[in-house]
Design a protein that fits this description.
alpha/beta, Rossmann fold, 6-stranded mixed β-sheet, 9 helices, globular
């Protein structure tokens, strides 16, 4: 049955001047995933990513690990929401906690409450509304799950992937955030699809990360 493999990007560069760059571990994770796909004989006939550099670099690493050279499609709907600017909008009047953008614990501690406010349209002047975000993710996924393709690799980000799952399962918004917070770098989420239906078939899978390499390759940011 046709399958969409939604893949979260590899480890990025949290706290650096430019987060949107894979770390050396992120590159290693991506190539390891590509080698696993090749070993399993899972070959994409369509590949895609959003506009973000970390997504593009991850897909390039996967294809390198597979020994493939394919031209991907670009779907802006696969981009992560802009949490930096969302936090700036929330704290426009002041009161932001210390280390909001460069301290891992401070940053992610605020994610659950901030996204819940965003989902309720309680943050003035966000970079995009929650409805706009949800709609663009849905549009991108439907464009990839089209007639005539059997195996699709699409590299996205934790928030967008968890929203795709949450929308398919029709869960309350809080579960989107819970899924995002547990998503591993280069984890696979799978949808199988027909012209009439889409089915949830797997979440947050990392078959390329084993007991032998988990100390190095198992990351979340």
């Amino acid at each position: 049955m046709p399958t969409l493999y939604l893949i979260r990007h590899g480890q990025a560069s949290f706290g650096a001047d430019d987060y949107d760059v894979l770390s050396p571990i992120g590159h290693e994770q991506s190539e390891a995933l590509g080698r696993w796909f090749a070993q399993e004989g899972i070959i994409p006939d369509l590949t895609g990513h959003g506009t973000l550099r970390r997504q593009k670099e991850t897909l390039a690493g996967i294809l390198k690990g597979m020994g493939l050279d394919k031209e991907p499609e670009e779907h802006p709907g696969l981009d992560e929401y802009n949490f930096h600017d969302l936090l700036e909008a929330k704290y426009a009047a002041g009161g932001a906690p210390t280390g909001l953008h460069n301290d891992h614990k401070s940053h992610f501690r605020t994610l659950r409450s901030t996204v819940a406010e965003w989902q309720r349209d309680e943050i003035p002047n966000p970079p995009e509304t929650w409805g706009e975000f949800a709609a663009r993710v849905d549009t991108a996924c439907k464009a990839l799950m089209r007639d005539g393709v059997e195996t699709v690799f699409a590299v996205s980000s934790g928030g967008a992937i968890s929203q795709a799952v949450s929308a398919l399962l029709e869960t309350p918004g809080i579960h989107q955030t819970k899924m995002q917070l547990q998503m591993k770098n280069t984890a696979i989420t799978r949808f199988v699809f027909t012209p009439r239906n889409i089915y949830f078939h797997g979440f947050n899978e990392t078959p390329h990360i084993t007991a032998a390499n988990a100390d190095r390759l198992l990351t979340y940011a």
